[in-house]
Design goal:
Number of strands: 0
Shape: elongated
Oligomer: single chain
Number of helices: 2
Length: about 55
């Protein structure tokens, strides 16, 4: 897998997580811990994208 395609896949994962977080936040009773974990995963992906783009 080339670097460009890897970054593209990470961006897709980040976008999918963004949508998932948005849906979860709007859903009453959705566990705050799960939302927090998704946000943390989103941040980790974003940091990985930034790191790869700097390389």
């Amino acid at each position: 897998m080339s670097l460009g395609s890897h970054i593209t896949e990470l961006r897709k994962k980040h976008e999918a997580l963004s949508l998932e977080v948005d849906r979860a936040v709007r859903k009453p009773g959705f566990p705050a811990l799960e939302i927090s974990q998704m946000k943390k995963q989103k941040l980790q992906i974003k940091q990985e994208i930034s790191r790869l783009e700097q390389a």
